[in-house]
Design goal:
heterodimer, A: alpha/beta, eight-stranded mixed beta sheet, 12 strands, 33% helix, B: 297 residues, 13 helices, 2 strands, 1% strand, MetI-like_sf (chain B), transmembrane helix (chain B), MetI-like (chain B)
Amino acid sequence: MTDAQPMIEAAGVIKNFRRKTDLAERIAMRVGLAQEPGTVHALDDVSLSIRRGEVVGLVGESGCGKSTFGRAVAGMLPLTGGVVRRNGQDIAKLKGAEARAMRLATQIIFQDPMSSLNPRKKVLEIIGEAPRLHGLVARGGVRNLVEGLMDQVGLDPAMINRYPHQFSGGQRQRIGIARALAVNPDFLICDESIAALDVSIQAQVINLLVRLRQDLSLTLLFISHDLSVVRYISDRVVIMYLGRVVESAPTDRVFAAARHPYTQALLEEIPRIDRRGHRFSSVKGEIPSPMNPPGGCHFHPRCPLAMDRCRVERPMLKQAGRDHAVACHLDGGFGRPKPTLFPTQSTLQAAESGLL
Amino acid sequence: MIAARIRGESMGARIARGLLSSPKATIAAIICVVLITSAILAPLIAPQNPYDLTEIDFFDAKLPPMSEGYTGMTYLLGTDGQGRDMLSAMLYGLRTSLAVGVTAGLLAMMVGTALGLVAAYRGGVIDSFIMRFVDLMLGFPTILVALMILVVFGQGVDKVILALVFVQWAYFARAVRATAMVETGKEYAEAARCLGIPAWRIMGGHILPNCLPPLIVIATIQVAGAIAAEATLSFLGIGLPITEPSLGLLIANGYQVMLAGLYWMSVYPGLLLLVLVFSVNIVGDRLREILNPRLAQ
């Protein structure tokens, strides 16, 4: 499964959003009547590589930049800085046929099954339009192709002439998956693809994705805010907080030995049957505004273990084991080990200095 | 709207059901259909051809309604100064008025829709440029701009249509842009971009069909507006040439003798114009209620 070269490599990706100003506003700003609109730092130097065949789960609170990262990797957004490489090639520099091939090879499965399908098109057109337009299938073969795809995602091909409103949420999501598969992608970005579905349907759609991944040897970037879902499907989990990656590790390791205080806080809040009496407390405080992120480590205002250093110095991602990277100043850069066993030297020191 | 979608009702069926559920709108729709049909069939149903001089007798000039003429024919709505049957002249006038109004309305719709779509989809400088131009157009009084165009280009059916398109496209552009911006932000438009579908196809094939409801409403009301504006221009004497009399021109012709007691030459075309514009507007208002999910109960 593992290649030497990563299939997708994001290096130092930065994406800022700025509200556009028109001429009148710019004049008003010149003379001091209006304020300069703030910049949203959606992605703040994100590096991440995905190996061929891997399923990477990208987790974080809403507003942390997960979806923006997905769009950036798909080449749908011009980047403010950094590069996204696919098989070693910068996707922003591709031209013509190569750019088109790259665009089709990465597809997105969207979140909202209501708005992600055009309400005025039949399933046949929704799934069949792109392959027909790109000449991936002969004119007469479109119907066959669409029927095959519907079968593959578990839809009855007899429903080929129906409109999206005639389907349930789960079925609509399957149509979305079939639409993406129609152009033969090898990399799928699932952007909260199951968040809008009922729990019983979620399981079906996840199982479908797992099966398709095996059948078609797909690579998946699975974006979600739900750790338990990610745990089920992912080989590796990447945790984002406010535009930065804070921890990245193989799935088992995240759940057994998370290092970053934020990851640990997220894990604490997964409902478990053996902790029925547990009183849930969300991570203290609100996620800060990405327009004005806190200095140093973005998580320090909410971190129970924050030190002086965290307020001024940004922690870089450091190796904390095989395939495991953490961005935290604690414990010599290894974050804090699971707090149940023995407190390490650094946490003891932190406790003594009144930070705990 | 959502309820209708769940029921799986097509837009046509929804419009028909909505129109029929209001007696006022039903009557207005029937009047519209009758008027449009009689305008199309004018050569078949009109008692005489008002343009054929051999059918017109000058001795029948200025006869009041219901009087019998030299030729033995009864003039239901009287005759005009040249002895033309008013009813026939009105049917032909209605034909011209409707043709000009509908053509101008549809052309304005095409121009405005295309520009509105491009503005919404492209955004940025193109959007600002188009929309500032729209603001400029909407800032001028309609009739004033139309007058200026006709003064510059001269008379004629094509010139009137040009003038009407010029003053009306901005309404379409503004309405389409607003809806298209909402639709462009939806995930299906993003999915289409992700699938490498060309921009013009996303605009025309994906976004435009979802902008239809407000477009239908605006189109209906703007057609009524175009008919009224054309009548105004013709009444002022700079619209259609005298050889193709529209309702506005008929009103203008009769207007000169109205105070002499020959009311029918001007009042009947005026009434017909009123009924036509009024009915189209009522249908348009009802369409707005049917197609706007916020106004629907």
